User: Fold 5-formyltetrahydrofolate cyclo-ligase from Desulfobulbus propionicus.
Amino acid sequence: MSTPQALDRQALRSRFLAQRSLLSPVARTRLSLQIIEALLALPVFRDTNHLFIYCNYHSEVETTELIRRCLRAGKTVSVPLTRPDQSRMAAVAITDPDADLAPGYKGIPEPLPALIPSRLLPLETIEIVVVPGAVFDRQGYRLGYGGGYYDRFLSGAAAQARRIGLAFSLQVVERLPVFPYDIPMDIVITEKELLQWPRNAR
Ligand SMILES: Nc1nc2c(c(=O)[nH]1)N(C=O)[C@@H](CNc1ccc(C(=O)N[C@@H](CCC(=O)O)C(=O)O)cc1)CN2
Ligand SMILES: Nc1ncnc2c1ncn2[C@@H]1O[C@H](COP(=O)(O)OP(=O)(O)OP(=O)(O)O)[C@@H](O)[C@H]1O
Assistant:
């Protein structure tokens, strides 16, 4: 990470993580519920069975209510299990966010170790990936925490899945510096707008 563009990205990431953390917990919860309602109202949601949903950490858009609503609707929900030794994520099915999660990698809520062998799901079955981020742009590109986990995930076995980024509106910029391995979102949802890019038009 030493090219000027890479340094730009690091500065952008830090700036937007700092901005995001300024939202009060009450505002974060209120805006998160608005964002989740917009996702649940998407026509594609009704036809989806398996969603891979991040478990929110620090000041990310909150997803616990989304996970509950999906489970109540009879959908399969898997969540990320970070495998830092491989820079990869696995998908582990959960049935109850209160009982099935505990702090894992970096303190992120992750599936309990006892669940892992029996609940690993093939990434090819994921239909929607709900993606967190530090900052998104109006072309659908994003920066996360810098591990490259989602780029690897979305260009690998989960490439068929619809990619839906969740962000507070303060996390959207016009244009980010893009690298060849960056995978753009299909949809970005904030409390103010829903941005969408048809895949065949990219
Ligand atoms: N909720 C959630 N789960 C996720 C991700 C994510 O972005 N959000 N990931 C997507 O890649 C993977 C974990 N990757 C991560 C890589 C680095 C850091 C990290 O460096 N955290 C900083 C704190 C940053 C902050 O200020 O918020 C640290 O520990 O110092 C965190 C997660 C898989 N699970
Ligand atoms: N498909 C890939 N294959 C191998 N390495 C990759 C791939 N995608 C990204 N990387 C590597 O991951 C590193 C971090 O990428 P990037 O800065 O885009 O992370 P990020 O999108 O912010 O992180 P995350 O996806 O974990 O939230 C880069 O140094 C890049 O070389």
Q: What stands out?
A: The radius of gyration is 16 Å. The helical segments are 4-20, 25-40, 43-46, 64-72, 97-100, 116-119, 149-155. The longest strand covers residues 76-83.
